[in-house]
User: Fold this.
Amino acid sequence: MNADLALQLGIQGLLTGGIYGLIGLGLSLIFGVMGVINFAHGQMIVMGMYVSFWILTLFGIDPYLSLMVVAAVIFALGYLVQSTIVNRIIDYPEAMQVVPLVSLGLILENMALLFWGPDHRSPETALGLDAIRVGSATIDVSRLMAFGLAILFTLCIFLFLKKSNLGKSIRAAADNRTGAILVGIKVNRINNISFALGAATTGAAGALLLPLMPVTPHLGHDFTLIAFVVVILGGMGNLLGALFGGLILGLAESLSALWLPATMKHLVSFGILVVIMLFKPHGLFGGKR
Amino acid sequence: MNRLYMFMAAALALILALPLWLDKYTLGIFVMIFYYAYLGQSWNVLTGYTGHISLGHALYVGIGAYTSTFLAQTWGISPWIGMLAGGLLSMTVALCMGYLGFRFGLRGVYFVILTIGFAEITRLIVSHIEALGSFSGIFLDFNPSFINFQFRGNMPYYYISLGFMVVSMIVVRLIETSRLGRFMIATREDEDAAEALGVNTFKYSMIAIAISAFMTALAGTFYANYIFYLHPATLFGMALSIELIMRPIIGGMGTVLGPVIGSFILTPLSEISRAYFAKGGLEGLHLILYGILAILVVLFMPRGIIVYLKGASQWIFNSADKK
Assistant:
């Protein structure tokens, strides 16, 4: 085996893993608070990609700068979805919870198709193809940047949840719903904010992914599945676990290129998904069920 | 109830005679109505009656389509036999997956993700097998004859798909009224309580998934010999899995008529709006409407349209009886 290649792939995988972690964090937060799985997660990421694409082509603002704007737009989308749809289905049996969110994914995907067409679009960004060499490995600047910002965004969310009053109420609602109601937390509002926050992570991830890969409307399913794998690796509802799950998955997918053709890399993630779910259903780091 | 059967017999007679007046395009829409009603019914056996949600049923459609086509192209085996082979293969896969899922107690969302995972893994593997056409898929040659399951015109497909649908309705009705069906429904309503009362929920879940997978795979063979083109992303993809569950959910899960009603409403809507919007360059709009409709139905009629139809028909009959 080629050590240089392995190092190269390892670095690349770890950097991608940071973004995966961010995506997983959003899904895990939503599940932790409401016990609902956001089946439209991947489509929301695609929406984020297109919004930042739009900002880039219309105003010439780079995705790294428009990151917060994109996150805010998807935050609003998430808030709207939660208050109109998800709040009504929280007490439904699980079969019925799956359908509206899957349908939402369908709607978002086809809205992207309607607005932006089926073409692959890869916009020119400021950093573009710049790369730095460290020893024998080459690191894309845009990937490094995406990693750094994804980790930063993740830390901000952690800080928000740990320190702010609103964040504390969210954690309280996730821990014990009834208890939270009893101490006077407005749980519906908390739901809205948690879902919106989870959605905002997808928006941020979308903006960070835009310079890394061409965007098409149909990327959503793949992202949703990646988010599932990350969250199941880290444990459903375990936020820190999601970050590590993302890093592990990024590494595993990237290193699999040593043995498998690149188009097969998702085979590794689905394999991990099935194995972890069967043998460690609470994830590697424990989670809530 | 007798009235319902009488009504259905009349409807069936009408449908049997219908091709006399229909042109090829309309006939094609009816084929799709029956096809999706059948698929929905197959899914209904597992999810509607046993409550284990599958979002990977495209897997079985794909296995059915690829098995019969591969056997026909390699060894010249008639798709009628290949159809059964595909059914059995897909049943085996389903039993393996079901064993893992039910034995390890994956419930709710976890089982959903397991089914998606299996379908996606199979899609990726099939996309890399040279003999199965890799990413580009397989084209079928057109040799019309009964043995080859290929026909000129839509008429034979109309009757075959109608047959599939009617038989599936009978099968599901038989299951529903049998002991097996009662146990399946008990599993759906409350798995722990059923277990506590001595129902072997594992066994009945396994039976349900086997029947469901077998039935679904037969539709795959039909699809292959109707469309003449197999593409891994279309046949194993999540889009088909979603498409397939919409009809029973909107019509009413866990009922014999639900998938059929759902298909009679959604399929023409989808086919006609697809054609209409694509003409105006609005591709995808029909799926947006579709998604909105599904969300509205789940929010406001969580038990499906059938509940309202039942209410309406009872009201009509009752007011007729009073006279």
Q: What stands out?
A: Chain B touches chain A through 45 residues (CB under 8 Å). Chain B has one domain: 2-322.
